[in-house]
Amino acid sequence: HLISDDTKSNLNVRILYIPTASYALNPSSSNTAGKQRQRARADGKKRRTQLLELLGEVLSLNSSDSPNNSDGLQFNLLATTLDLDDGSLKQPVGSEDSSLFPENDKAALSTWHPHLIYVEGGNTFWLQHCIDKGDYSTLIK
After folding, report:
1. CA 88 remoteness from chain centre
2. How many Å apart are CA 75 and CA 66, to the nearest integer?
3. Alpha-carbon distances of 108 from 22, 81, 83, 118, rounded to whole Å
4. Please, are residues 108 and 89 in contact by the beta-carbon 8 Å criterion?
5. Number of C-alpha atoms within 13 angstroms, CB side, residue 68?
6. What is the pLDDT along the chain (141 residues), one digit of tens a residue?
7. Residue 44 host element (H or E)
């Protein structure tokens, strides 16, 4: 199934956002590790919001508001952020129902079946380091 059916006309689109190296701590920074994480998460959330806005615009072409849509479909974007470095899931959006989101990092890449996994650019060496550290290679196909 590409899109899961919540109701007849509301379709959930699951998006997993992975910020990669932008979440890496800089040991030479004058900011504390906590401050660096706080800033990185805020920056990541801003970039993810931009992605969701773009996807929302693209999908709205197929929504019930579109004159070209005879199916009456409404798309709901469900998104969460996966920090590959520590395996944490942050900032779920799209529903107040927590059962619509993955329980953990492994589920986010497997049983949650995201329709889109968006890896935010950056250092491919850092990405590989995090994939190895979290033992994610078997989950990414």
Report:
1. 12
2. 12
3. 20, 9, 11, 12
4. yes
5. 4
6. 454 444 456 889 999 999 877 777 888 999 998 898 888 888 889 999 999 999 998 888 655 555 544 556 788 999 999 998 889 999 999 999 999 999 999 999 999 999 999 998 778 888 899 999 999 999 986
7. helix 33-60
